[in-house]
Amino acid sequence: MSQNKLLTGLLVGAAMGIIVSLFDKNTRNDVMDKSKKLSSNAKYYASNRDELMSAVQQQTERVQNLYARISDDASYVGEKVNELKELTPHVKDMALETKEAFVDTKDAVLDSKDDVLTALKEDNPSASSSLTDDSSSSTSSNSSSAKNG
Question: pTM of the entire structure?
């Protein structure tokens, strides 16, 4: 019994909504124009059923072609996603190897720097000397030797 009241309430509510929306002149004119067009199309296709069947077949073919294209695209994207999943660990490994190579190179450069500094300190025990100090003092001593000689 409650189902009858529900269905009746829905139908009455829909009818009231239609009536209220038809109070607007633009809506009313639009509904009338579309109703006339629908009526003339229905009469035309009622007398020309072959054309209706042809139009339905064309639309069916369009939908099937669209479905086939979407299916192909979806399978292509799926294949690319699977390739990417397989490729990701390889790329990660390559990135880690590259990082390790850079770290090893950095460590080698630091070790070389330490070796050079140690060698310089052994050659010149002065703590304040540096490469630029040594070269400028040797240049100045060379130039004073040249002036004196």
Answer: 0.41
